[in-house]
């Protein structure tokens, strides 16, 4: 469910929503959500001084009942 929330939030921010890929993995330290976006959208997702990325992480952590980490990466073509 959290991966779907992250995907929805990010697809509404970026210019290339078809390039957004969100994958969730469970490990011993909690859940890891990996987000890949188009290189042209990476600045838009991270935001000025990381504010947008931190806001996304805050929303996800508030919804979760366990430790969640959100990693944002760009797609290299």
UniProtKB/TrEMBL annotation:
An example Gene Ontology cellular component term from the record? cytoplasm
Which keywords belong to this entry?
Answer: Cytoplasm, RNA-binding
Provide a Gene Ontology MF annotation, just one. Answer: RNA binding
UniProt cross-references to InterPro entries, sorted A to Z: KH_dom-like_a/b (IPR015946), KH_sf_prok-type (IPR009019), KhpA (IPR020627)
Gene3D superfamilies found in the cross-reference section = 3.30.300.20
Query: Where is it chiefly localized?
Result: cytoplasm
Q: Which Pfam families match?
A: KH_KhpA-B
The entry sums up its family as follows:
Belongs to the KhpA RNA-binding protein family.
Q: Which NCBIfam families match?
A: PRK02821.1 (NF002761)
Q: What is this protein called?
A: RNA-binding protein KhpA
Q: What is the lineage of its organism?
A: Bacteria, Bacillati, Actinomycetota, Actinomycetes, Bifidobacteriales
């Amino acid at each position: 469910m959290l991966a779907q929330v992250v995907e929805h939030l990010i697809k509404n921010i970026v210019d290339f929503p078809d390039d957004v890929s969100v994958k969730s993995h469970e490990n011993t330290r909690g859940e890891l959500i990996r987000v890949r976006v188009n290189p042209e959208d990476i600045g838009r997702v991270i935001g000025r001084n990381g504010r947008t990325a931190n806001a996304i992480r805050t929303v996800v952590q508030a919804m979760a009942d366990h430790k969640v980490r959100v990693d944002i990466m760009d797609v290299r073509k």
